[in-house]
Amino acid sequence: MKFGLLWRAGTVAENVAIEPPLVNRPPDLAGGTVYTTAVYATLSGVAELEVPQRPDLSTVIFRIRPADGSRAAAERADEASRRLLKRINGHQRIVLSRTVVDSRYTLRVCVVSHRTHRDRIAEALKIITAEARNIPVA
């Protein structure tokens, strides 16, 4: 099974208030890592996204927020989430994976390497939030 957050060498992204990289980062109070908590907090603050669950360990799931509670709105949001995944992965700077949670198409960010640096997380969040804000929900 292929999933996660993979990186290619590149430029440093904007400085974001995330804890510095630590070898063997300690878990935070939510049971994940400092970076997982930062991803969760950032994505939870994006109006176009819904983050249906608090992260378990290293994985944060998210998807496009439907316009209302109808099944038709959820289907439109799922289609927008599919397009969002293609747009994010199209940057070729990060690779996200997908799954289905509660019958909804859902994207995953997984930060597992203890060598991940804050500039990589900042770049990922910049890409994800910019694309989420620009994805049309038809």
UniProtKB/TrEMBL annotation:
UniProt KW Lyase keyword = yes
- PANTHER family in the record: GROUP II PYRIDOXAL-5-PHOSPHATE DECARBOXYLASE, MIP05841P
Name of the protein in its database record:
Amino acid decarboxylase
Q: Which InterPro entries match?
A: Aromatic_deC (IPR010977), PyrdxlP-dep_Trfase (IPR015424)
| Entries under SUPFAM superfamilies matching the protein | PLP-dependent transferases
Q: Which UniProt keywords apply?
A: Decarboxylase, Lyase
Q: From which domain of life does this come?
A: Bacteria
* Organism of provenance: Streptomyces cynarae
